[in-house]
Amino acid sequence: MKNKNVMTLIPKESHKISRKDISKNALKVLYRLDKAGYEAYLVGGSVRDLLLGKKPKDFDITTNATPEQMYQLFRNCRLVGRRFRLAHVIFNSEIIEVATFRGYTQTQKKNIFNTNISHRSKNEMLIYENTFGCIEDDAQQRDLTINSLYYNLIDFTIRDYVNGIHDLQTRTIRLIGDPETRYREDPVRMLRVVRFASKLNMNIATETAKPIPRLVTILLKDIPPSRLFEESLKLLQDGYGVRTYHMMRKYKLFQSLFPILACSFTEQEDSKIEKMLVEVLKNTDKRINKAMRTNPAFLFAAMFWYPLLELTTKILKNTKLIYYNAFVLAMNETLNKVCKTIAIPKRITTLIREIWQLQLRMSLRNSKHAWKLIEHVKFRAAYDLLKLRADIENNIDLQRLSQWWNEFQTAILTQQKNMLNILDLDKNYCSDKKVYNVINHSSRSSIIDHNP
Ligand code: ATP
Ligand code: MG
């Protein structure tokens, strides 16, 4: 790692960032800050992606103006963030995030310069308070070298304090500073390392990768489950889910994030749970790459379907509950267990339950149910899960059932009526008679619903 005081200045003619590739709103903010006498740079993912010839997801700015000064300067500004105050400059179609240069805190200075023990949480994560600093400090506070490049709109130069350009050229994901200290400061960095390695198809530097499997089991517990939920979506719903899953598994990150799945992992990676994971992530990747909408409820409903079935079977064995009631209890328990690590919001767990319950209801294809089911908002997601199950299990009944629903939902009205008439004549149509009987004879009001 190069000395932190050495900066490489990349002149305009030596890089390919052009003003026309930068959002008009980000340009407005940068010019306004400059006019008011502040230093301001484009930084992070946008500079990295523009240098890689990719379209940036968003345009983050860093400046020596404090959040309060930002608030005074921009009418359309809102201050956000509790641990570290940020300014959001709000435009019609876009929010530009502006952060004041981060500085070293007292605790960090002690750690760096005297190697004194710093404040630690019960799981050994370092706790730092945030303070403002200068650009040189800010460059050291960022996570990866490739995320710590500063573009100056005024003279079109790029500032590199951490050898980020070299790492971009050699396609290397490298944490700035001592990896173990940086992971202890913020364990989410372990997830970010793998996310960017997968997304950008880059290699992780050996010293950056090495501590991850050891630290993940100790440190992940310190991250609030709500943050882990957000991070898990970024990891699995970014268009590279299959690759990210394999990489997370390699570094033991997946196992820590989803212990309920990991306990069924096999060496051959051929359990139903593992097959489902790959299939649902392939499906999600395809949709994202075709710019189709994706819903985390479908992803999670599929991921946790087999653990749910296993638990239902266990409950049935140990209690006198009928199938439907055992299934509902298992839904509650499965979601409770998952939410201990990743806090899936209630609006999503509600949809997950609906997709799961529709699996049972889809076995019932009499005329009354069928019309209702295809009108259900989650019918399409439920059908997609049924299809995945049929493919994974290679089960002829499930395959027939999924084929039937596929035909029914796309058929014209007369064909649909015809399909139902045939079913009504043949009372053996139900692929899962147990489920059929249970749903018809159970009183749903007796079921206690514990939403996590
Ligand atoms: P993308 O938005 O394309 O996913 P990004 O690099 O812009 O990638 P953000 O989460 O938007 O990622 O963060 C913006 C920048 O803030 C990063 O590039 C990095 O410099 C810094 N950053 C984000 N999270 C951390 C962290 N946990 N520790 C240190 N720096 C971070
Ligand atoms: Mg970003």
Describe, in short, the structure shown.
It is built from 24 helices and 12 strands. It has 452 residues and is α+β, with helices and mostly antiparallel strands. It has an 8-stranded mixed sheet.
What does this 3D model show about the protein?
With 452 residues, the chain is α+β, with helices and mostly antiparallel strands. It is 54% helix and 9% strand. It has 24 helices and twelve strands. Strands 1-10-9-2-3-6-5-4 form an eight-stranded mixed β-sheet. Strands 7-8 form a two-stranded antiparallel sheet. A two-stranded parallel sheet has the order 11-12. Strand 5 and strand 6 form a beta hairpin. Helix 8 packs parallel to helix 11 and helix 19 crosses helix 21. The longest helix is centred in the C-terminal third of the chain and has 19 residues. The protein is elongated, with a radius of gyration of 26 Å. The chain starts with 7 loop residues before the first strand and ends in an 11-residue tail after the last helix. The C terminus is likely disordered.
Layout of strands and helices, then pairs:
Blueprint: E1 8-10, H1 24-35, E2 40-43, H2 45-51, E3 60-63, H3 67-73, E4 77-80, E5 86-90, E6 95-100, E7 102-103, H4 106-113, E8 131-132, H5 135-141, E9 149-152, E10 157-160, H6 164-169, E11 172-173, H7 179-185, H8 188-199, E12 203-204, H9 206-209, H10 212-219, H11 225-236, H12 241-250, H13 253-257, H14 259-262, H15 272-289, H16 296-303, H17 305-318, H18 323-341, H19 346-361, H20 367-375, H21 379-393, H22 396-410, H23 413-425, H24 433-441
Helix pairs in contact: 8-11, 8-12, 15-21, 16-19, 17-18, 19-21, 21-22
Bound molecules: adenosine-5'-triphosphate and magnesium ion.
Adenosine-5'-triphosphate is lined by residues 44-45, 57-58, 60, 142-143, 147-148, 186, 188-189, 192.
